[in-house]
Amino acid sequence: MRISGVPWRPTWLGMLQLAIVGGLVVMAAIGVVNAVALVTTRSIEFAMPVATTPGLATEIGGVTVQVVVPGPTGWQLVAHSLVSFPTFVVIVTLLALLLTVVHRARRGGPFDTAVIRRLRLLAGVGLVGGVAAQFVEFFARSQLTASIPEDQVPYIWQAQTHVDIDLARIGLWILVGVGFMAFAEVVNRGRALRAELDTVI
């Protein structure tokens, strides 16, 4: 509600809410584009780790080759989608939950019990969902790599032994989950202190 004669001034929470909405719109557009591409695609392309000589293993972040698969099978399309789709779902879920947190904080204040509950939910989604997404994507990369015959790309690493899980991403998601949980407990502590002050006053 705007009072007549008082100029409207944006708030940090209001601008953050608009930014989150914008992020969700962008993510929705990316999802639609990827879905259309998946339905209409006639080939898939992805990077595979290779060895420079037969039997020689390279380190993580070493030599890779771009593989184009014309006329992919249904399973290859599913595996190719799962290489990145789980992380996409987790990010969209986090943004949607964060939007509800900001909205609730603007309506009921930062110490509202609903804000604390949703911050804890954010922590759970970031920790459990983010880490689970990395394992699903690791499995998808393994299956996608294993679906390419060795004679088509020389010296391909076999997925069962040479596709490595990204520990840095797992660590990042753990940090995100723990960070949201710590923030939720800080807000919860502030709520408890405010309740104590109210009883004193």
Automatic annotation (TrEMBL):
Transmembrane parts of this sequence: 12-39, 77-101, 121-140, 170-187
Keyword set, alphabetical order: Membrane, Transmembrane, Transmembrane helix
Protein name: DUF2975 domain-containing protein
Organism: Dactylosporangium fulvum
